[in-house]
Specification:
The chain is α/β, with parallel strands linked by helices. It is built from 12 helices and 12 strands. The strands form 2 sheets. Strands 2-1-3-4-5-6 form a 6-stranded parallel beta sheet, with helices on both faces. A 6-stranded parallel beta sheet has the order 9-8-7-10-11-12, sandwiched between helices. Helix 3 runs parallel beside helix 5 and helix 11 packs across helix 12. It starts with 16 loop residues before the first strand and ends in a 41-residue tail after the last helix.
Length: 408
């Protein structure tokens, strides 16, 4: 999916700056950041990378102090970089107090006159306006571009914060699709759960679902994969697993092992309660393989998961296991319907991915403005009640907001 390089590698002293966490740990945000870096390198540009986190999920004081040190060092580095023809600053935006760090980078970038691209990986501040997020947007300025995962996220951001320049790029664009392992399912025998395992990511709901299936004698097995967020989560899960004869914990899976996991399951459940949730990239990976998804409707998940490719349970519904089990009974009783939904998942992924690949190229043009060619420009959205220009005429500047398409 990543385009091949074009000519000699541009030195990092003149290339874009990528600010954000890099793996490890492997999360949706760190994976996207690493993907952006690799995509730039494949295009012949060596970005300057400012990694502001250090491995692991632990939130101990040593971790926090280490991150503060990384941020201070990164801000100093950014402030001393010389302007260049490709010196765009890309900042991965988190949620909560983490935005204090991103605010510092945005302030330095704007003070130095560097074009700014903010990539948002968090839905919390789109549920309601937050003061810190308002400050971040104000410091970034009206010329900053804001990248989100869906048209719905873009619309919420414009409505809550009055930003003009948004670009909706689903993480489906990041998933390589060579067709390997993708096949329609007919017959529901194996239920999968894969995530950074935590209570917020719905691990207890998955275990409740498998316990309910075992209680009624349903001949299904469960596959559980991913790293544990902390020791307390691991102890609680392993204790529950002792009473679940047909659930296997596979550990963290990457690369070919992860692809095999999706090839082995007939349904993915993603009962996330995580307030920051946007898409849940594992949902898209499952759909690529032809695996239907049953998920809580957090973030922008309802924009691409529905009855044609799975099922969305309203976030306020506490009975995820009961709702999911009822749908599993239906699909087990009607294998043809399960196959239809499986094919629907494959089609939906292709639709989302095709649209997002075009938008991904628009993102690359933002990061490499001197490399932009003849791609259609994106129109800018004015603030409500405001003309885009003082003379009232339409405005088309750079690669600005894209929205309004139906999100599948």
């Amino acid at each position: 999916m990543i385009a091949q390089g074009h000519g000699a590698m541009t030195d990092a002293r003149d290339g874009p700056v990528v600010v954000g966490g890099m793996p490890p740990p492997v999360t949706g945000m760190t994976s996207v950041n690493a993907f952006v870096v690799e995509a730039l390198r494949q295009r012949g540009v060596q970005p300057a990378v400012i990694n502001i986190i250090g491995g692991g999920f632990r939130r101990q004081w040593r971790y926090r102090l280490g991150r503060i040190g990384r941020v201070l060092g990164g801000v100093l580095r950014l402030s001393t970089l010389t302007p260049g023809t490709r010196r765009t600053v890309y900042v991965a935006v988190s949620g909560g107090f983490g935005q204090f760090y991103e605010l510092a980078f945005a302030a330095v970038a704007r003070a130095r006159g560097f074009p700014l691209v903010m990539h948002h990986h968090n839905f919390t501040y789109l549920l309601r306006p937050m003061r810190l997020t308002r400050m971040l947007f104000a410091v970034a300025g009206s010329d900053a571009h804001h990248v989100v995962q869906s048209d719905g996220m873009a619309e919420r951001m414009r409505s809550l914060y009055g930003v003009r320049r948004t670009l909706a790029v689903s993480n489906a664009a990041l998933i390589r699709d060579d067709g390997e392992g993708a096949r329609p399912r007919r017959g529901l025998h194996t239920i999968g759960y894969i995530s950074n395992i935590s209570f917020a990511k719905g691990i207890i709901d998955f275990l409740d679902l498998m316990q309910a299936a075992q209680r009624e004698g349903m001949p299904v097995r469960g596959l559980l994969a991913g790293p544990f967020e902390d020791e307390a989560t691991e102890r609680a899960v392993r204790e529950r697993l002792r009473g679940l004869a047909h659930v296997d914990y596979l550990g963290p899976l990457y690369g070919g092992q992860k692809a095999k996991f999706f090839g082995d399951i007939d349904l993915l459940v993603f009962p996330t309660r995580y307030p920051n949730e946007t898409e849940g990239i594992v949902n898209l990976e499952a759909m690529r393989a032809g695996v239907p998804v049953i998920a809580y409707g957090r973030g922008c998940i309802p924009e691409f998961v529905d009855d044609a490719c799975g099922m969305v349970v309203p976030p306020e519904d506490a009975g995820f296991a009961e709702r999911a089990l009822a749908r599993i009974r239906e699909w087990r009783a009607d294998e043809r319907r399960h196959e239809e939904v499986s094919r629907g998942a494959m089609r939906r992924f292709e639709q989302v991915r095709a649209r997002s690949q075009v938008r991904w190229e628009a993102l690359m043009d933002l990061l490499l403005p001197s490399a932009a060619t003849d791609r259609p420009q994106l129109t800018e959205h004015p603030r409500p009640g405001e003309n885009p220009r003082r003379d009232g005429s339409p405005r088309a500047k750079g690669h600005d907001t894209q929205s309004g398409e139906e999100q599948c």
